[in-house]
TrEMBL record:
UniProt-recorded name of the protein: Interleukin-1 receptor-associated kinase 4
Superkingdom to which the source organism belongs: Eukaryota
Catalytic activity entry: L-seryl-[protein] + ATP = O-phospho-L-seryl-[protein] + ADP + H(+); L-threonyl-[protein] + ATP = O-phospho-L-threonyl-[protein] + ADP + H(+)
Keyword Kinase annotated: yes
Subunit structure: Associates with MYD88 and IRAK2 to form a ternary complex called the Myddosome.
Main localization (coarse): cytoplasm
Amino acid sequence: MSQEISSTTFVRSLQHVTLRQLSDFLDPQDSWKKVLAAIHKPTGEPRYTQLHLRRFERLVSMGKSPTIELLYDWGTTNCTVGELVDIFLRHELLAAASVLLPDKFQMDAGVQRHVPVQETVSPSSQATRLFDQKEQASDCPLPDSTTKPWEEEEPDDTGFYRFSYDRLAKITSNFDERPASEGGRRLGEGGFGVVYKGCFNGKQVAVKKLNCVDDISPQELKIQFNQEIQALKMLKHVNLVEMVGFSSDRDHPCLVYELMANGSLLDRLACLGGSPTLSWSRRCAITVGTARGLQYLHVNHHVHRDIKSGNILLDEALGPKISDFGLTRGSARRGSSTVLTEKIVGTTAYMAPEAMRGEISPKSDVFSFGVVLLEVLSGLPPVDDSREPQFLLEMKAEIEDEDLTLEDFVDKKMEDGEPLAVEKMFSLARLCLNDRKGRRPDIAQVLRQLEDVLTTSAEH
Ligand SMILES: Nc1ncnc2c1ncn2[C@@H]1O[C@H](COP(=O)(O)OP(=O)(O)OP(=O)(O)O)[C@@H](O)[C@H]1O
Ligand SMILES: [Mg+2]
């Protein structure tokens, strides 16, 4: 007798025949790994580490299905079909979604009809890579099980890989300086060094090669770097970029992160490389996810210090993840070095008045996030030398003084900007950007208000 399945059905009550059908779609090409990586504990931490992943991988050689074992295991938490289908949609695993809820997902004629299964932060129906990095999955093959060239590499007990510099050189084609969009490896450059695209264990990664700067010795850089790794090990959340590992055997320490296929929010708002405009509903979901990541940092007594759209990265499903939450602490400790001066100049557009004086608190992150909200509303860069006013922040005052209307400020490229929701987001940005930190909301209040903006948008 076939089973009636709805989004509230517990995964643990699915019949074996259904699990078998799912495994037919998810075991090949290791699609189950995407599902595993997307499963989180209620605290936001990933449920499974690299060690778990290995354990599931081993099941294949024992003739078992990793998909079925994974669903048995996760099923013990009383997770539902709705949650599982949401994960499928986020990763475009539509065939698997249609096994569970065939009425809601049509697989024929390429039609992808998405009926929201449950409230979710990032609308997953349009999971897409906006930013063509000229690499196919086949260019990043899984290691061959017969040769196992890097068999000695095992993650440590927290799931991080300790790489050698040479190994990272190898996976980035010798730190190929040609842009990734032109077939090279360079993704971009920031205040700490250059970021390259690499490939490790069948997964695309971003390798940040840190530069030694004049005012800091290689030894000191390594101490700071190690301290930051300790911090990164503790901080895990679905809206924070995950670290895969690091290398520290040469003068250029490197950090290896999961690759965020859609680059930074800064670049996507600017439609760099011809990427399509982010819709209003997508922008709302991005702000909610970012606020969740920031709330997690603040709850864990961590101030980011460099919140900006360039540090909000977007995954394949355009889900936001905050990056550089470890390094920025290190940078602030560099004192009044030239690099710090440059860094302050580079991020002035986001800095709270008290942060300019060196006073850092969670409320200074809230201020910076207010600038990000202005970027999301307007699609404009935070600073533009050829613009009057140069700083986006100053446009807030122009709107308050009625020299500029909110309607004129809002990004004309969006077609679904709902006026009430837009107004609510702008009011929230104003609160975040209050010069007096005591008058700014805390991140929990910001998050609640953004969820309200999201609901307002969805209702219209
Ligand atoms: N994990 C990642 N996946 C994809 N792209 C990334 C990743 N990390 C960084 N990048 C890209 O690399 C570029 C440089 O990033 P980096 O963090 O070094 O500098 P930044 O964010 O511009 O400045 P800062 O040094 O102040 O953080 C950015 O354009 C960013 O989009
Ligand atoms: Mg960055």
